[in-house]
């Protein structure tokens, strides 16, 4: 088999341009090390990395090869075998003339590793935390051009590190002084005088001769920040400096020469500015002898966490982020890039006081943008994401807190479900919630569904989903995929996980028309003491705002037109779960000294489900029952001959209303 060194156009077809550039740089270096310098080991490992070939195979091939041609011939059979085995890094190609050859494999991960190694050699770049191949490729360009004399243009959104990179390039260049100037901050005439200097008396206020920054940076670097805002009057003068290395101080005729190195940065699109006539094309060309484009943070998802954890550690925090925070950080756009991320993490480090970072520790603006408090659907989604947090569902004590933070922030005033559009949105939210797909809405394609289903392990959820996804909303192939998956799941029942149950309960509470169904589900749900009560709480909150009869046209979820069954209908729990019995229940809980603190804390949260949770967790059912019975007896004794129960204010059977409880408390106080 013949081998082929990849011609440029082949590489370009296989790699994006920026990677192609880095690959050929690495390849050239590897060959140099293999055949021209004594650093054989480096060359061998680079070749192994770039081609995804085991190091020992490369070593063996190199041992018997005298040149590149021979080395590649030795390696070709191995690459050919890989190509036949379906390794898509290796390809067999037909060369015109009927010759068949094997191309050099291109291993992107290997290239990334090489770039990381390359970056680590430059301590000036240590402050750049990244494992992103796109940024690493840009840093490689910076390293390679740092020691040259040519101008560098760094572009990228605000906060991507343009200023930091300019400084790093200066350090790597070994030049003397670094003189930065922000071209936006000052007027054209002042900028001119700052850059070129001026002669005493050349304008009002020029009380003495002044040397400009260009002169100061004679053996150093002049950094023109925000160069896109450079005043048009100054542009031709700067062009002259770059082109002819000549300039004149303001108010002077003598021509001065300079050897300063220029680095410019901007977050503006200079090509657009050229088209609009705001920036000179020839100046842009001169400035961008070497152009480095820094990618925005949202395109470097892995870097978000690397940087966040580093910033947190610097702020003496463990660097731990809860899953909901990770989800939020992934879906947030980070318009201010690394600078914004660093600020947010420093804030969170203080707010969390050393605890793992939760959503409530992040700056408000960030949370609001990531989760706009829009409609019910987005609230459910948010809750889904919180529930998706593995650490939350494991930790009994912290779960209510994390959910509560979310509920507090987003359920203060849950908007009613007002129209069909919102109901549809809600169904969509259910789908996403069920898929536990963090981040942005999932386009429900067959492929997406299958990928999502691969993450699901819940029979009950799947079955519920199948019900919810009526054929009118989703294409048949999606429904049949779901059915097939359900069948497969049913064969492998291991007990549905809590989350699935919770979601099902929520769906049922909102969707079922049959009150018995709801009671049954509630009872079932209440067996789970960690997640479910919170879901019930959420469902309750939502329910309170869906009391109005729904328009008959609503088909996506049939919202029951009547008032929902109260909690108290749940057999065995009705008395102590009824919110009107709260005072009695609270009393019962407080009466048990051992649980005072925790119960007190939970009770403050003002939710029947919390109370239920406390009661269950501490086996207080009997105490509660007794108290309820006692107060019921007391009440009937008091009301019997003289007072008939007032209409409309009577609690369900066996339930005591506030007046009676208050009366009871007053009696106690008197005694
Ligand atoms: N990859 C990175 N890893 C760690 N810190 C980074 C990274 N990129 C940038 N930073 C840090 O982010 C901060 C902002 O960077 P810098 O001020 O250089 O951005 P900029 O693009 O010049 O912003 P602006 O356009 O607003 O001037 C700096 O503290 C810098 O060290």
Automatic annotation (TrEMBL):
Pfam (any one): AAA_lid_14
Region: Disordered, residue numbers: 630-671
Superkingdom per UniProt: Bacteria
Matching InterPro entries: AAA+_ATPase, AAA_lid_NorR, P-loop_NTPase, Sigma_54_int, Sigma_54_int_dom_ATP-bd_1, Sigma_54_int_dom_ATP-bd_2
Sigma-54 factor interaction domain boundaries: 146-350
Coiled-coil residues: none
Basic and acidic residues biased stretches: 656-671
UniProt keyword annotation of Nucleotide-binding present: yes
Keywords: ATP-binding, Nucleotide-binding
Keyword presence, Transport: no
Comp. bias regions, Basic residues: 638-649
Protein's recorded name: Sigma 54-interacting transcriptional regulator
Organism: Archangium lansingense
